[in-house]
Amino acid sequence: MRRGIAGTIVILAVACRLAIAGTFSVAHxxxxxxxxxxxxxxxxxxxxxxxAAGGGTVIVPAGRYLTGTLFLRSHxxxxxxxxxxxxxxxxxxxxxxxxKGANNDHSGRYLIFAGxxxxxxxxxxxxxxxxGDAFWEPASQPQKWIRAKSPRPSPMVEISNSRDVHIQxxxxxxxxxxxxxxxxxxxxxVRNVSIHNNPLAPNSDGIDVSGSRDVIISDTRVxxxxxxIVLNSVDREVERVTVSNCVIRSQCxxxxxxxxxxxxxxxxxxxxxxxxxxxxxxxxxxxPGRGAVVENVAVSNIVFDSNxxxxxxxxxxxxxxxxxxxxxxxxxxxxxxxxxxxxTQGRVLITAEAGTVLENIVLRxxxxxxxxxxxxxxxxxxxxxxxxxxxxxxxxTATAAIVMENIDNIRIDGLTVSWPHELPPEDWRIPVxxxxxxxxxxxNFDYGTTVPPVFSAIWARGIRNGTxxxxxxxxxxxNANAVDVANSDLKILR
Length: 494
Description:
Blueprint: E1 2-3, E2 9-10, E3 23-25, E4 34-38, H1 40-52, E5 56-60, E6 63-67, E7 70-71, E8 76-80, E9 84-88, E10 112-115, E11 118-123, E12 127-129, E13 157-160, E14 163-168, E15 171-173, E16 180-183, E17 186-191, E18 194-196, E19 207-210, E20 213-218, E21 221-224, E22 229-232, E23 238-244, E24 247-250, E25 253-257, E26 266-276, E27 281-286, E28 293-305, E29 314-320, E30 331-343, E31 348-352, E32 358-369, H2 376-379, H3 393-396, E33 400-418, E34 432-434, E35 442-444, E36 456-469, E37 483-486, E38 490-493
Parallel strand pairs: 3-5, 4-6, 5-8, 6-9, 7-10, 8-11, 9-12, 10-13, 11-14, 12-15, 13-16, 14-17, 15-18, 16-19, 17-20, 18-21, 19-22, 20-23, 21-24, 22-25, 23-26, 24-26, 25-27, 26-28, 27-29, 28-30, 29-31, 30-32, 31-33, 32-33, 33-36, 36-37, 36-38
Antiparallel strand pairs: 1-2, 34-35
């Protein structure tokens, strides 16, 4: 501790937030930490005792603690000390169904559940290991996605209808589905968390912000097979979310706003100062449904590479479409992406289905470096995933670094494209790749003999009030047009 300016004592909490009352070691309630005998009851007794005392810190000392669902209470800090491992049970009967969500990834069964609580922390440098492989089918081939069994516990850690929640310094791995879900909660803080999952694991999202408000995620590492950090509005509006200083690897979308057809608004979002590597998509903003709006999204200072064994890579992907059920189309507007440095084989794809329009899109200081060019005509004509601008067939297969369709007011200020001049580096020559949305599609690549596609810098259709400023607009070869523009009010400036 130290003294403040007026002599007031200021206490510095380094690892975990300070407990309101005393400490309660799970060892005192009978937990041995052998990793062989289920210890759910002993750990839950420690949590309940701390709650009954008005709050406190539940200590999990070094050891391996096999457990089913644990229910956190208000005013509790769960501290996993160095060397402590919470091992998720491999028996589905140890996960009672609590509250099921609106999709199959939200099963209602969890390893840690905080529902309707306040002032709760999960902290320490210990590990939460869901042992999720117990709920997967055996892998059919080493390059293919793994299928999930049903039922399964997912998300591994569920924060629901709660407020003032802190998750700090903890490590998480091997969920059966999603890893950490922040659902319909307020004032949630995630800092210095490490998530490391099997890259082929089914639906293994890192962090989901599901209908929550006032969320801060920072200084966190996510390495996973599904989306890295994703905002969805299935249950409620998402507002005031900031993600900063993170390192992310994702076989899907690393930083993602919205799911196809989300019924509620998402607004006031920032992603900044992040390194995204080995990922299929860097930043993705997807269409809401039922008239909902995604707006006021600011992305800045992102370094990205898409050296990943998954086809159809997109450094930036924004897509708007009509609802499947005939409901009013949503809107995406006021998106600013700046200082974005990408090494990629894919395209920036910004599209709206005919009859809809994206509004007020700004890209500033975008650099695209191409080790080689992925041919969307071969790979994107019939995509398995529902997140590939499926309602824009011409744009989906357009060969250009920046592809845009049906936008009102777009500004691209400072675009640099570096085309490939030789064979890709050895570490980029992945011989077999899979496809999102399919368990069966595999694609073989021969980097030495395949003729590369001819790319323009810009492809545009249906643009109103647009400007692109780039120093040296040119295509990928002498045979390529620098720009391919039709039915558009788009100015190309140098």
